[in-house]
Amino acid sequence: MIAHSNVKKLNVFRAFFRLLPIVYKSAPLLFIISQVLGIFHGISWGVNTLFTQKFFDSAAKMVEKKIGISAVIISLIMLGLINIINQVLNGVGNFIPMVFSDKARGKLSIKINEKMGKIPPIYFEDTKMLDNINKAENGKDNAVWFVLTFMIVFSFYIPYFTFMAFYLFSLKPILAIAIVIIFIPTALTQIIRTKVFKKLEDKSAPVRREFEYYENCIVGREYFKETRILGAFSFFKKLYKESIILL
Predict the structure, then answer these.
(1) Which of 186, 200, 129 has the alpha carbon at shortest distance from 156?
(2) What CA–CA distance (Å, rounded) separates 186 from 17?
């Protein structure tokens, strides 16, 4: 029996929980730092909304001559500081995941190579097995960002929406329902996008493997001389163009 026939179909959540420990172990400290920063970043967005309201409230009171201009200046300074903190967290929060993803991709590449080393050579003649290997190699980058995207929901959106829920509830209880209405589509969007990507990947993997092979025959160091000597350049070029159109 071909080895790939034992591959189980994973849904979005099962795939996430399978990938999470692998991605986490690739760089635990960076992973934790990125999630902690995500929490503070989410809260900072909520605090920014709060201080924006306080600034406009103080400006309105100043116009009504209920407070002096000094109170408005203090509100403006606080709003500016919150925005600065927000932008710093945003910059660092975008940089650390990039560093983390590089390390995680390296770890996943090692795991893929270890798995491939255990596959009997005869299975490399099977096209479906080669498609699975191609999907694994091209999917490791997306696997890392898939985990990070899911974690953003927990580390950024949940703290942000929780803060906003309490804030809106303090203004008017019925407004807190708006947070639920906004959060559910955000979570569903991530799940639907992942499922759509999986279907597209299953369809594109065989074609992508073909055009990568043709490209290697045309310009790859391994086959370049042989292709030129045999005069097969035009042949592979035609196949390459056809495979790109299909993709």
Answers:
(1) 186
(2) 20
